C-alpha cells in the first residue's frame, strides 16, 4: 500500500484526531506515517512513500525515490523549486492563500507603527521619557506601491483603502486593475511606482528574477523619506544598499519581517538604526492559519487520491 508521510515540526502539526479521521477515510488506499522532518523513527521505511506533507530535509528526500507529490506548509517554495534531491517529476504545492489575512494585519501593524513613531515611544516608555512625536506620517492621501499583488498583497491593499491610501499594484502581468487598486503595472513599471510611492511594500517571492531586486539603484529611485516594508523574502533585498539608504536619510524608515539571513545576525547594523522595525518573520503567527492550512491539505489529499488536479501547484520555472 502506498504511503503518505506527514513531516511535522514545532510550527506545523495536524491534530491527532484529524489524522485519525484521515487514516480511517483512506485506509484502503494509503498508509499514513508521521515523522519529524529531520528524523525517521527506527524501523520505518519511506521507500514506497508517494506523498509528503511538510518540508523534508535532503536526507528524507533521498529516502523517497517514488515520491509524486510534496505539499509544503509554507507559501514560499524557493528552497524546493531547484532542490537537487527533489525530482522534477514531483508535483510541488504550497500553502498560498493561508496567510493572507494574517500577513495583511501584520503589515498594517508595521506601517502604522512606523507612521506614528511607535518604536520611538516604546523606547521612551522604557526610559520614562514624556516627549511628543517629532515627525509622524499619514496614510490618508498617501500612495502605497505594493510589489507582489497576490494573496497577501491584495489583502494589504483592501485594508489600506479604508485609510484613504492610493494603491499602485505591481504584478508579473498587468492585464487588468485588481480590486482595491487604483492602477496596475507589470515589472517594467516598477521604477515608476517606486518614484511616486510614500510606502513601498515588498511581498515578492524569492526567485532568479527577484534576487536583490531592491538594490542601490532602486532605493535611489524612491522618493526621499519613503517607508520601505519587506514582508516577502529577505533575498529580494540588497541589505547593504538598504542600510546605506537608511543611514543617509534617503529612506524614512523600514519595516522588516524577513531578512537575507535568518535569524538576523546580532552584528547587523539593521538592529541599531532607530527608524527600523524588525519583527522576526512573525507574519504568519496567529489564529486561523492552522485551520486554513489543514483544510487545504485535506482538499489536496482528496484530489491526490482521486487523481485530480492539485491546488496551489508551484511553477518550478517561475519559482512560485
Automatic annotation (TrEMBL):
Pfam families, per database record: 2-Hacid_dh_C
The keyword NAD appears for this protein: yes
GO MF term set: NAD binding; oxidoreductase activity
Signal peptide boundaries: none
Domain D-isomer specific 2-hydroxyacid dehydrogenase NAD-binding: 108-281
InterPro entries (UniProt xref): D-isomer_DH_NAD-bd, NAD(P)-bd_dom_sf
SUPFAM superfamilies on file: Formate/glycerate dehydrogenase catalytic domain-like, NAD(P)-binding Rossmann-fold domains
UniProt keyword Oxidoreductase present: yes
Domain of life: Bacteria
Keywords linked to the UniProt accession: NAD, Oxidoreductase
Name of the featured protein: Phosphoglycerate dehydrogenase
Amino acid at each position: 500500500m502506498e504511503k503518505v508521510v506527514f513531516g511535522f515540526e514545532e510550527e506545523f502539526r495536524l491534530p491527532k484526531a484529524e489524522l485519525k479521521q484521515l487514516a480511517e477515510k483512506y485506509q484502503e488506499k494509503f498508509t499514513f506515517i508521521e515523522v519529524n522532518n529531520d528524523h525517521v523513527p527506527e524501523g520505518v521505511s519511506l521507500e514506497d512513500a508517494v506523498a509528503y506533507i511538510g518540508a523534508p530535509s535532503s536526507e528524507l528526500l533521498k529516502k523517497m525515490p517514488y515520491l509524486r507529490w510534496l505539499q509544503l506548509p509554507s507559501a514560499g517554495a524557493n528552497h524546493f523549486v531547484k532542490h537537487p534531491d527533489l525530482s522534477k517529476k514531483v508535483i510541488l504545492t504550497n500553502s498560498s492563500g493561508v496567510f493572507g489575512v494574517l500577513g495583511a494585519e501584520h503589515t498594517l501593524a508595521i506601517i502604522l507603527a512606523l507612521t506614528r513613531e511607535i518604536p520611538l515611544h516604546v523606547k521612551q516608555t522604557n526610559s520614562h521619557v514624556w516627549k511628543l512625536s517629532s515627525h509622524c506620517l499619514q496614510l490618508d492621501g498617501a500612495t502605497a506601491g505594493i510589489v507582489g499583488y497576490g494573496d497577501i498583497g491584495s489583502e494589504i491593499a483592501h485594508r489600506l483603502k479604508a485609510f484613504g491610501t492610493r494603491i499602485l499594484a505591481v504584478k508579473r502581468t498587468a492585464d487588468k486593475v485588481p480590486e482595491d487598486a487604483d492602477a496596475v503595472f507589470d515589472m517594467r513599471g516598477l521604477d515608476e511606482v517606486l518614484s511616486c510611492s510614500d510606502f513601498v511594500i515588498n511581498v515578492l517571492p524569492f526567485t532568479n528574477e527577484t534576487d536583490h531586486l531592491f538594490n542601490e539603484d532602486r532605493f535611489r529611485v524612491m522618493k526621499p523619506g519613503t517607508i520601505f516594508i519587506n514582508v516577502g523574502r529577505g533575498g529580494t533585498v540588497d541589505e547593504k544598499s538598504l542600510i546605506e539608504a537608511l543611514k543617509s536619510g534617503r529612506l524614512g524608515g523600514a519595516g522588516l519581517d524577513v531578512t537575507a539571513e535568518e535569524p538576523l545576525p546580532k552584528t547587523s547594523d539593521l538592529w541599531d538604526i532607530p527608524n527600523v522595525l524588525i519583527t522576526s518573520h512573525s507574519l504568519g503567527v496567529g489564529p486561523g492559519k492552522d485551520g486554513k492550512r489543514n483544510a487545504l491539505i485535506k482538499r489536496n489529499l482528496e484530489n491526490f487520491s482521486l487523481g485530480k488536479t492539485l491546488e496551489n501547484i508551484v511553477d518550478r520555472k517561475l519559482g512560485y
